[in-house]
Amino acid sequence: MFLNKFAVLTVEEPQEPEQEQRASPRSQKLVKVELVENDEDEATASYFGHMFFKAFCLFQDLHNMRAFISHTWSEYRDKRIDLVNATLVTDSALQLARDLAQEVVDDWASSTLSPDDNIQDLVFKAACVIRRILPIPSAEIGLPYNKHMADVAEWCYLPTWVILGSSARVLQDNHLPVFKKGYFGIYDPKANRAGMSLGQKFNEDKILLQLLPEFCMIGTFGIRMPSSDSITKGLIEFRKTKKVDPWLCFASHILLDVHHTMRYNTLSVFDDLRMSGLRIQKSLKTT
After folding, report:
1. Pfam families under this entry (predicted)?
2. What does the mean pLDDT of the chain come to?
């Protein structure tokens, strides 16, 4: 049988000495603590957080649209849809994207930030701070941004912002910009873009955007076109305003994506466009 040897013991509560219990009134001090909350700082942080959140949502929506447009043109390349459907989907998405981007741009311009601050540049630098990477360009491979932040730069359309910004600095009224042939290199549509480095991809984009003087010529000479798409209208307007906004960067990147998707199949696009025109003309004559 087990016997608890400590069962007969009693437990007494410890008591403080009387000297500690009777503290002198002179040694007792009342300290008044006042908690001050800076509502202004909290409101400012909340406001800027809201602005960056809207910018994040915008770029994410543009990213989803870009993926859908690229998929649409890959279906056209594979003869699953016709040219009319591909162009209608692209232009409708560009118009929707313009409305979304304009709302964010207007909110950003009315904020307490400097109106000259670029949304894309600020979002990119904020991402660099989060990742603890310095926003130093990787000039050794020909990039105007850090190669370790290439995914974010592509996501917020920083490459096209850099190219369009450099083009805006040379635009003059009543003058046409001229690119020296082969200055950035020669475009090879048969090259494998997937196997290119980041610097080679950026250089290929610069070569393709040597098309900008063509759009400037339309605006300078006032060439009237029976119909015009959103990209053409945007680039003609860019020649006048010389302003680069997120939508223009997005539209320019869509132009590049179409070339990257079609590659050497771009000649078939002209043939399909000509055949579509002939069918429309024939249908008008029969009616």
Report:
1. DUF6604
2. 83
